[in-house]
Input
Amino acid sequence: MRLHWYIISALLATVLITPHVTASAMTVEEAYMTLSHQRPIFNPSIAKMADDESLYLRQLFQIIDQAVRERVQTMAWLQSATANTEPPDQYNDLLSHLSALRPPHRLNAVHQLLREAIEEQRDVLREWRPLHGIAPHAMSMQHPLVQDSSRKLYQVYDEVLRLFPGEDQRNRQAFHDYFCCLDLL
Output
């Protein structure tokens, strides 16, 4: 019965934290394919961490999937010359879902750094909106927010590896892939 409630709570959390996606939006899988990458898969059934940490990371990675999709869609919009189109703008929803997650104590720093990295990505991508279709080369990856966001994502990855050194190689690869695909660099 305990496992039954665990599964129900996990499914409910998935429905509640996955941002609404319109029919015309790019799928998560398409976003990862755009990055020439397969969608990462964190497997909680082989995780060697506590159940609350595994559940939290699974929910966190669902938000990261949506953030990757948002980043890829926004970069595609910025580089397109399509007039009269609205830019993707789901970052505030993603950050709201992220804020609603309650990390286990050991993952507080991961949670905070990831939130800051996504906020910085949102801010730089919004700053670049006036360049839509005009000067994609002006979107410098040397921008301080791009660099800072990238640095924070590396810190998050390092911290997750430090916290979970005994994880299976497949989950360790998923950790790398989630944070790498989210990075603007």
